[in-house]
């Protein structure tokens, strides 16, 4: 659609209306938070409050990973699938299921344990 508007503007010998609208009269797009609804709005509000990863989707760094101090993996469920990149040069990910209350050892020797997650939207 934007490409069509731009081509039409160039054919008429004018600047594309798409560009004119963005600079005319000091008017800019409103804050995305004003337009967002539903889960997108919750995500933007959590980011604004200082939580950059409200859905816990970022890669976690491994902790000490010993049997006494396993790497804590937060979860809202009783189980969660976890991927471990055992070596920096590895071209694959070792996937395993974790269950609450049961620490589990990866093939590389690191230990993981499922913990109760905090509500990211509070």
UniProtKB/TrEMBL annotation:
The keyword Zinc appears for this protein:
yes
Which GO molecular function entries does the Swiss-Prot or TrEMBL record give? metal ion binding
Q: Which Gene3D superfamilies match?
A: Cytochrome c oxidase, subunit Vb
Q: What GO cellular component is one of the record's annotations?
A: mitochondrial envelope
Tell me the segments the record calls region Disordered.
53-72
Q: Which CDD domains does the record cross-reference, listed alphabetically?
A: Cyt_c_Oxidase_Vb
Q: Which InterPro entries match?
A: Cyt_c_oxidase_su5b, Cyt_c_oxidase_su5b_sf
Keyword Thylakoid applies: no
Instruction: Please provide the Gene Ontology terms (biological process) for this protein.
Output: mitochondrial electron transport, cytochrome c to oxygen
Output the SUPFAM superfamilies linked to this UniProt entry: Rubredoxin-like
Record key words, sorted: Metal-binding, Zinc
Sites binding Zn(2+) sit at 84, 86, 106, 108
Q: Which Pfam families match?
A: COX5B
Query: What highest taxon heads this organism's lineage?
Result: Eukaryota
Task: Give the PANTHER family listed for this entry.
Answer: CYTOCHROME C OXIDASE SUBUNIT 5B, ISOFORM A-RELATED, CYTOCHROME C OXIDASE SUBUNIT 5B, MITOCHONDRIAL
Q: What is this protein called?
A: Cytochrome c oxidase subunit 5B, mitochondrial
Q: What is the lineage of its organism?
A: Eukaryota, Metazoa, Ecdysozoa, Arthropoda, Hexapoda
């Amino acid at each position: 659609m934007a490409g069509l508007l731009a081509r039409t503007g160039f054919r008429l010998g004018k600047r594309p209306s798409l560009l004119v609208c963005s600079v005319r009269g000091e008017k800019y797009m409103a804050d995305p938070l004003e337009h967002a609804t539903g889960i997108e709005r919750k995500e933007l509000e959590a980011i604004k409050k200082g939580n950059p990863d409200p859905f816990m989707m970022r890669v976690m760094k491994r902790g000490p990973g010993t049997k006494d101090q396993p790497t804590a993996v937060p979860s809202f469920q009783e189980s969660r699938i976890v991927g471990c990149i055992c070596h920096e040069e590895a071209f694959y990910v070792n996937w395993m299921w974790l269950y609450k209350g049961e620490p589990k050892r990866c093939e590389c020797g690191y230990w993981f344990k499922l913990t109760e997650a905090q509500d990211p939207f509070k």
